[in-house]
Structure formats: C-alpha cells, structure tokens
Amino acid sequence: MQTPKSQSSSPYYRTKLRGLYTTAKADAEAECGILRRALDKIAEIKSLLEERRIAARMAGVYSDTDPPRKTMRRGVLMTLLQQSAMTLPLWIGKPGESPPPLCGAIPASSDYVAKQGDKVAARVKAVDGDEQWILAEVVSYNHSTNKYEVDDIDEEGKERHTLSRRRIIPLPQWKANPETDPEALFSKDQLVLALYPQTTCFYRALIHTPPHRPQDDYSVLFEDTSYADGYSPPLNVAQRYVVACKENKKK
C-alpha cells in the first residue's frame, strides 16, 4: 500500500515556501540598500565635517573638539587618535565585490594622492639625524614637484615637512572585516609599521595575531633589542595605525 505524500512536499507547499523565500530575499536586499545609503550619508557628513575643520583651522578658528596643537594636552591627543581608530568605517561590500585600495592592508594605488587633512605615516629626519616614521597630517601636495607638505601630528615635535611620495604611506580609510574579507588583513608574522601605543611614531613590528572580529585590533610584536628574542611582548594596535613596511631587512 502506498503511503500518502507529506503535505510539506506537495506542489502547493513548495510553491508557498518558494514565495516566502523570494519575499524574504527581496526584503533583505531592500534593507541592505537602506543601510548602504545610510552609510554613504554618514561618510558624506564626515567628509563635510572634515572640510569644515580644515577650513576653520586655516582661518585660525578652533573648537573644543579640535583645539590648536599648541594648547592640546598629550592625553587629549591620544584620546583623539583612539577615537579616530574606533570610528574608522568598516568596509561592507556587495556579494562578490573585492575590498578597495586603503581597506585594511590593501595599499593605495600607485597614482593615489592623499588629500588635505588626511592622516599618513611620514618618514622624517629626527633631531639626532636618524630617520623615523611619524603620524602626520597632509597640508598640501605639489603636482609639479610630486612632494607633500605635512605637519607632525604631535605638538611636542611640531614641524612642517616637505617630503617625496616615497616617504609617505597613506593610512587605511576602511577597516577590513576578518569574517568576510580576511585577504584584506596582514597575516601572522608579516612585517609591518605600527603606531606604538601612547606615541605618535610608527615602528617595525611582526603581526602576532590578526583581528578575528571587525572590532578587534592587531596584536603585534615590536622590534626591541632589550628583549632576548629581539621583540616586545604582544601589544594591541588598531587597524587604522598598521601599514605595510617598505623595508624588509631587520635593523
């Protein structure tokens, strides 16, 4: 004797299930569209605020949230740098879309020019004559000479520098999502330049542990000859302040 077919496998229920799936998929795509437009609007607002900040600074007008560097306490500067790292937007691409340049570990394109107000790693000569990588802000770029003018972000060593493009590394403009775009992150044991915690200088380091979640930092080992193995204990550094190292040899 033939057993009756399950209701769930009947054409009616299969059609109904397909319809529910199609509706849910359309609703999800619509919601994604709304979220993407909201993210675009947030990015637009942030860009306008940055333009206003630069214009006000050029006019000599400052606010409580952006005081002149001459009066900025170091603790305030460190807090602002931390906030900049925390508010760096997360790259959310469409299905199959690859992360763009300046997302996580992906470098800028060869013809990229950093904009006024952008934060960069800049290689400058220190007081003792040695060269070091500092956190700097772009003032201008001269297309005739292919050179940047940048300001040291740290008031304690404030000085304007004129530097060639090879001495400038743009910082990431998006965080990479380890769950969807792990290829856009530096891998374990990769050599990088990382901002040493509570300073405005970049030093050579090895990736100890890449981020596992979007909100995670890198764990890095800084080169340090005061330790037996030549590296510091693991320290956390935000994606915002980790860039590729152009020098391969260990000093």
Automatic annotation (TrEMBL):
GO terms (BP aspect): regulation of cell division
Transmembrane segments: none
Superkingdom of the source species: Eukaryota
Pfam families found in the cross-reference section: SGF29_Tudor
Main location: nucleus
Localization per Swiss-Prot or TrEMBL: Nucleus
CDD domains on file: Tudor_SGF29_rpt1 (cd20393), Tudor_SGF29_rpt2 (cd20394)
Keyword hit for Nucleus: yes
PANTHER family cross-referenced by the UniProt entry: SAGA-ASSOCIATED FACTOR 29
One Gene Ontology CC term in the entry: SAGA complex
The organism's taxonomic lineage, starting at the top: Eukaryota, Metazoa, Chordata, Craniata, Vertebrata
Domain SGF29 C-terminal span(s) in chain numbering: 110-251
This protein's name: SAGA complex associated factor 29
Keyword vocabulary terms for this entry: Nucleus, Transcription, Transcription regulation
Keyword Nucleotide-binding in annotation: no
